Amino acid sequence: MIRTAIQSLLLTALAAVLSGCIGPGYYAQSLKGHLEILAARQSVDKLIEAPSTPKVLRAEMQSASAIRQFASDHLDLPDNASYRSYVDIKRNYVTWAVFAAPEFSLAPLVWCFPVFGCVPYRGYFDIDAAVKTARGLKDNGLDVHVTGITAYSTLGWTSDPLLSTMFDADKTYLAGLVFHELAHQRVYINDDTAFNEAFAVTVETTGVEKWLRAAGDTAGLAAYRLQLDRNDQFIALVARTKAELARIYASSGSADQKRTAKVEAIEQLRSRYRRMRDTSWGGYSGYDRWIESPINNAKLAAISVYNDLVPGFVRLFELCAADYPRFYASVERLGRLGKAERKKALGAVTRCE
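Above: the chain's sequence. Below: its structure in token form.
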């Protein structure tokens, strides 16, 4: 899967700490967790060279090193110290993200931080703290979604390392994460998470395709494109349900009537998914875990953050003749517009400026 499970986040709390805004325990846990990871970094080059490095780890570091260099040499992404070190964090996720939305709205709650601006989630290094926050939000009548995260970015504030969680799948998955995180260092617009994430997803997907072509991996490229096609179909399925829910929430029905209709719409999503999985997908079950676990407005909003604006960015990339420097320059120009004007301009883009 590409973006149904949120794989990476910006470490917003770290920015608050670094800018002098130390306060509640939320900021303290973020700084502590990040500094522990930085203290455990090992040089990728030294791991490759060291005779004591296990064979499997050496092979992973060699692949990661080549991917990292490809990002700078061929995607015009920052050539810095990020993702040139490695940390085995010895757990399945590096952080956990909490998303929340009102019971009858698909608009996520946002939290604002210095430097990074406002984002629709809070990230925690401690799962118990994430669950506690989620419980408090739920007690206030909100829909809540908690998800594990495999990577994060500090936008270059520190030299972000490769994490053991980034190696849980194949090299294509790793390449996508590295390209995505470095894209955030290339262009980032305050207070517009949907814009930033869709831009990074576009760099990620186009970058992975270019990397696979350069490697002559035709089988891998075909498999990746099939993965992207399935993801697009799944996102379209979710978008249909979101449109149905928006109509329900805007209706004049009572709260109980809206709750009933909401449950029915979500069950219809599951039914449509299973039909698509068992027919046109030939039984491919990669999205089963997402679809069978609880679905609410917060979970749907999390998907929207990463996917809704991607078609506009892909169209702009194609208009820029797949030239990354031209594409980045055009994105930066869009970033100078107001938020509403920026979204409108991206949706109507007809040329690479």
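Residues 1-5, 12-23 have pLDDT under 50 and may be disordered.
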